[in-house]
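Example 5.3 — Diacylglycerol kinase
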Amino acid sequence: MDATTSDSNLESILKEFRIPSFIFDAESDVSDDESPPPECPVLVFINSKSGGQLGGDLLVTYRSLLNEKQVYDLGNEAPDKVLRRVYLNLELLKSRGNNLAIQIQQSLRIIVAGGDGTAGWLLGVVCDLKFSHPPPIATVPLGTGNNLPFAFGWGKKNPGTDRNSVISFLNQVKEAKEMKIDNWHILMRMRAPKEGSCDPIAPLELPHSLHAFHRVSATDELNKEGYHTFRGGFWNYFSMGMDAQVSYAFHSERKLHPEKFKNQLVNQSTYAKLGCTQGWFFASLFHPSSKNIAQLAQVKIMKKHSQEWQKLDIPSSIRSIVCLNLPSFSGGLSPWGTPNSKKQHERSLTPPFVDDGLLEVVGFRDAWHGLVLLAPNGHGTRLAQAHRIRFEFHKGAAEHTFMRIDGEPWKQPLPEDDDTVVVEISHLGQVNMLATHDCKSKSIHDPLSLSHHNDGDDDSNEDEPEHGEEWRKFGAAETFKIPDGVEIAHLS
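Solution (predicted structure tokens):
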């Protein structure tokens, strides 16, 4: 918006997004409004604690531009309660013949500002509420990784919080396209231990953001006597191994010293340095082989339209495994890349579409291996594409491992008794996202996506990248970034 934009023009722009107050109070005595409905009515959810002070600043700006009743601080009110209340009011107004309520419900869009955990929370709530016409969601990047916003074209850097920046973003939301993306169910089951606990542990005390593990009730069909069963969901990725260990160290440090983590650049630098102290850059020296994926668990996959489990051969050197739904991981990298036509034919590999009912399963040996993602056509070790994945942890393989869902890590204890721990991931359904027209995510139903993926990698090997000085200049993603002040010669 130009600085010279008149107040009348500004009001005309904002009318396209504002929702009248009576929509939020179905009991108010309001006749059917003769004014035209907003072209792009939005509900705005902001995690005021995300991005340091930025979340709070953004909340103030949105409330100054829109109706305060359509802008919510997630620290004060949970989105499921808000959406239930708003949709109940809309249904009551519709039953009274209010045309504006009908039109608003048909065109409603959601904006969520926060980290990937916050965005996943909103996606999970909208999915769980099972609306007949679920509103699509646009994500404002306020976290450290910001994989969800980046995958759909909203960027990965913290946005401006001034009026012009917010109005510009609102206009982008109005012009955005809708995309369906797969969402995934994850189940963890383990025999109830004789002593101690094997419960999943979330270090940030944000189980709603994880939309992840909660113990199923005794009446749940997934419950099994003598076992603890947990279930949850994710939209971007599930990972296990050393990448999750680094993430866990970062989140634990941030929980202990939140005052040190109010700047995005500082957060990313700290994340990178922890990658070194945790041994991610010299894993062969400091990471016991007993914790490599193949030694820790047996992995099985099920192809689409199949009912048969197949054992997946994991190279013995793989220390991290990622089950990826979106083409954005570790701050915007694409571990799967685009297989060339030869690989697509010989290994039945496809490009990474976000709505094809398949997860891309990728392995990494260490952070050096991950640095290959920063090169053109770079990718990790492509292990498989699967409609279902099952991890069966070996008896006594380790006391614990590290896991991560959509950026939220935890340290998972493993029992030592005679039953394996099982983690199983299966396709659950789809949710609606808002995306810019040039976004990174591609749909299998979009002809332009198919042509976009014609130029795949032509590198037939997946060797370690050279430990050369040229890698320092990329400095992109937290998990694989070489921090300033660390000499490569001391790590190789």
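Remark. The radius of gyration is 23 Å.
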